[in-house]
Amino acid sequence: MARRGYDMSDETVRRDAEAGGTGAMRRWSRRAFVAAAPLALAGCAVGARVDRWDYSGDARGGRLTRRSNGVGIGFPSGYADIYGEIDDGRFVVDPLDFSEVDADYLRAIVPYRGPERPGTIVIDTAEKYLYLVRDDGEAIRYGVGVGREGFGWTGRATIKRKAEWPTWTPPREMTLRDEEAAKWAGGMPGGPDNPLGARAMYLYQGDRDTLYRIHGNNDPSSIGHAVSSGCIRLLNHDVIDLYRRTPVGTTVVVLG
Q: How many angstroms separate the first and last alpha carbons of the chain?
């Protein structure tokens, strides 16, 4: 079946979201971000298609049903395009099962009034959001999963490497405490079952690898929770979008 792309303007999606959006932005302790409508983004799903979904409703929202398992969702229609199937030529990312994710953590555009320059990534681990600062007084906000207590990390870093469908090699410390990780001490090949998901961005301080990553994941229900060993995980749909917007050399600020 031919793939069908989506070119949805911000203005079109703004109208949909303002008419039937989901929730308001959580508190931002540094007051850099102000209250925001949940807005989907232009061109977010590369090669996306939604032929596995049925939608009934209008501009104010409606009901989205995935034919394969009959999941019914009350989200604005634009999210069906954003989180549809993605085939990047190597693997297929299935359409998101919206029942697994809190609507507050879906991708959104929010106003930004903070000090960081456009192109900077700001991660608020307390609120479970990642922000990509734009040059128009706004930021793209993504829901994330963060490190469990005792495994978190804060500070400034730089993305010095990026990978599509990356190999996962657990640190030695992890292999000693986690039997499942020990099975992959030599590296787990990239693919839909890999815990790094569809994309990974590697954080360095100078020439030192921090061993922390921004990556996708194969468990959508983990978004909005403290579940990882310190890395920042996104939905695969969102990490693909962030990856294409983020060059090597990007500054990352991780807040506690």
A: 46
